[in-house]
Amino acid sequence: MRKIISFLSLAVIILLAAACKETSPFKYESVPNDPMKARIYTLDNGLKVYLTVNKETPRIQTYIAVKVGGKNDPAETTGLAHYFEHLMFKGTQQFGSLNYEKEKPMLDEIEQLFEVYRKTTDEGERKLIYHKIDSVSYEASKWAIPNEYDKLMATIGASGTNAYTWVDQTVFTEDIPSNQIDNWARIQADRFENNVIRGFHTELETVYEEKNMYLTHDGMKVQENLMAALYPDHPYGTQTVIGTQENLKNPSITNIKNYHTTWYVPNNIAICLSGDFDPDQMIETINKYWGHMKPNPNLPKLPVTHEAPFKEPVVREVLGLDAENVTLGWRLPGANNPEQYLLNLLSLIVYNGKAGLLDADLNQQQKVLTSYAGVDAMADYTTYQMGGQPKQGQTLEEVKDLLLAEIEKLKKGEFDEGLLEASVNNLKLSQTSRMESNEARADMFVSAFINGEDWKDEVAQLDKMDKVTKQQIVDYANKVFGNNYAVIYKRQGQDPNEKKIDKPAITPIVMNRDSSSIFLKEIQQAQVKPIEPVFLDFEKDLQKLEAKSGIPVLYKQNTTNDLFSLMYVFDMGNDNDKAMGTAFEYMKYLGTSKRSLKEINEEFYKLACYFSVFPGSDRTYVSLQGLQDKMPQAMALFEELLADAQVNKDTYANLADDILKKRSDAKLNQGQNFNKLIQYAVWGPKSSATNVLTTEEIRQMDPAELVDRIHKINSYKHKILYYGPAKPEVVLDAISKYHNVPDKLEPAPAAADFVQQETPGNKVLFAQYDAKQIYFSAVSNRGEKYDYAIQPTLDLYNEYFGGGMNSIVFQEMREARGLAYSAGAFLITPNKLKYPYVYRTFIATQNDKMLDAIKAFDDIINNMPESEKAFILAKEALITRLRTERITKSDVLWAYLNAQDLGINVDSRKDLYEKAPSMTLADIKAFQEKWVKGRTYTYCVLGDEKDLDLKSLEQYGPVTKLSKEEIFGY
User: Fold this and answer.
1) What angle do helix axes 418-434 and 455-466 make, rounded to 10 degrees?
2) Residue 468, SS3?
């Protein structure tokens, strides 16, 4: 009888749910057993809306995805989708303008001038036309309000304002407070429906700078060549997302307007949301602002292309300054094909970071420097990609052959069948982890929409994988892998295709920083129910326990899922022992007396648990994470490795060669050169960055000494951080049972005393790197130590002056002058009491803009533009974010640790929240006068000497040229 009643009750519940769904004005699709409980709506005009509720924090991750990307660009104006992404931040008729009726005639004139400009070939005439464009643009800017979109986002407390464009999609991102749904929806609807193209020529300079970045980005060049080789008849391969330099120099506003009208329509857009909201109210709000928009029933379709089968591998070469590598790719069906789940599972068998074929056969056996494999799923095709870097003396062809040999093993079924189950379990772990993140949840919606995937297939994928047999994987591998691949050899050398884009003469536009549109004022005056802030109480929000041997344990319970993280934190690192990093790098290749390296990694993978050891300069982090019910086995295995790692001399000899090769490769990379140059400026020639084993020390090191360091690590004083579902007594019991430590722990050995260098006078440090862009930073250190009392004012200064897109730096360096793609300036708070405050700037800009950039930076830093309205906006944005920002989960433990490092026992955000409302622009100006103005700097320039005026740099101080050996320390 009970079973019958239960069955009837269930039937009633199902009928009620169905009735609610039927009577609701907005119908939605849902899928049983969906962990996200997603609702998928389609409005009458075709707009898709994906919703998933996650109430952990009072915020919502928003992605607005448009199903248009680089593949849809007209052939004569490649890069258009990406460029229009930038222009979507320029406003509409309602915002971004003081008086659109007065602005519009000039915008129309600029549009016509660009049409003439792009069809003119004589360089002299082009310069005259551009001068006219610049002149009219300046006059038009008197009626514009640059960055008003960013002011709107600051007003509602949004963060993460950004966008990206790829081959199939253009996606716009915001993270908003949950009480700002109506304002957000209103702003976005106007933005998407009524875009106005303004600030065109300065934004074009920003896109040029982004293109310049790609010119020295060897990884991007490899990807572009791989796409061209695999898709010779499809826009994936025939054009690039960023566009050609020729097309970028000849833009068409008319084409861009037509593009917007065609593609930015509701039946080509999805709004993807995850966070704290009521889905019924959310869909009503979206319909209120978006429901009237007209669809485009005639969305263009790409001509169907039928790529010819490969008769033989396609081989290409790419030249660039970075280290050599090889990339292989196979052309497979698009992401929504019915066998995609087989490819996703197969990919983990080949490479998963622990126990895949590449992991076990190549990386762990040190047959290559590095190797990897993965899936790049797109709407029309999928690329399966493999790659590797050669060891010293190894050719790219040899690496390619090793990679292909692993594919042959796959096709022959030469892998452990247990990898299938282990891979599915690891995917389940990954899914559980992703469910914690609003960004990940919403991004899954974006992928499903762009790739045309049915949500039920996404939900069912793990169940389908659970049933896959080894034979299915083998059959699928033999079906898709043959000589149907492309291989890209990335070799060292000067790329002959690089072309310098000369800087145009641009008059800085009028910023109208104190002006506001009526639209912005309405948003500012809109009444919303306030959200009260929640700050940490370190006495209540975590527990402080003590394990055996007096080890302090910081404990925070995970009440969300079954995942745990366990961290041993040692207050010692490479500063205490410069061989520490080498020792734990060596450990990655070692087994124990009971298990081989392969067996250890396979066991961890089967447990769906991961470990890592990271020695920093003054701290070492030993981390273990995974599923709580596997923690005891994972701890036992990890502790066995720490206590019983076995010396292998051949492995060390290989490692020594690889370390030296990686060092050599690092000197070829632009980012790493700049990082080392900054470290040199901050610390001088002796620092944590240069405190490494010499080549001779590496060669002569006895590997037994390294293993001794591994064995001894647990004997030093440390603390343990635990975040997971287990009760405190269970955690302490596990530590007691599995953590191998002596009764009395030793203090950490003495550390080298490196001192950050004060900057008593101006000087210039120059390092050579052959690129079309310079990387520039100014560093200033006056020796002031941490002062808790100034932090609220400092935080607000950074928000106003150097923060996001609404900051003074961004507006002046990018919007007004078109000098950079990215720029920033901050007074950086030390992370430990012993360190000083450091003022830092950064900009990446075209070589011939270097002096303009330095001059502009110096001007705005020392003569900070003052705007009462901009200040109030920055203050309100900061307060609004503090109201909805939540530190949760394991971040609570790290917040406590960081506070301890600065000698405080409270959540400093509370002080900021309480003091910010009474702060004034005069306070910020006084802070700037005392803490920023008149500083002296070490100016750091990484660039190509032959394209730079080093003589002119001397006006900023004596110029010292540094070699790679000096900045790297080896």
Assistant:
1) 140
2) coil
